[in-house]
Amino acid sequence: MEFSTINSTAKHFGVSSSTIKRVLKNGMSYKNLFFKSEIIDNRILVYDYNHKLIKVLDNRSDTSRLFNILTTTLTRYIQSGKLWK
After folding, report:
1. Residue among 9, 60, 14 at smallest CA distance from 36
2. SS3 (DSSP) at 56
3. What is the CA radius of gyration of the chain?
């Protein structure tokens, strides 16, 4: 199975995101499952409220500049899976 965020993984398994982070960090198993985190690329896909892809940007810095949002705020939204504005 693949999940796009730690939060979505935690939600699926009914545990806290800190549990998933701890399992990833320590390389241990959880309920006989092993988790692996990998970044495939740094692109940011921007969708509208109807889930239509409207823009693909190369990285968080470009996205931050274009939408006038701090990179730390952008990162929090990406990790939480919540919509921004």
Report:
1. 9
2. strand
3. 15
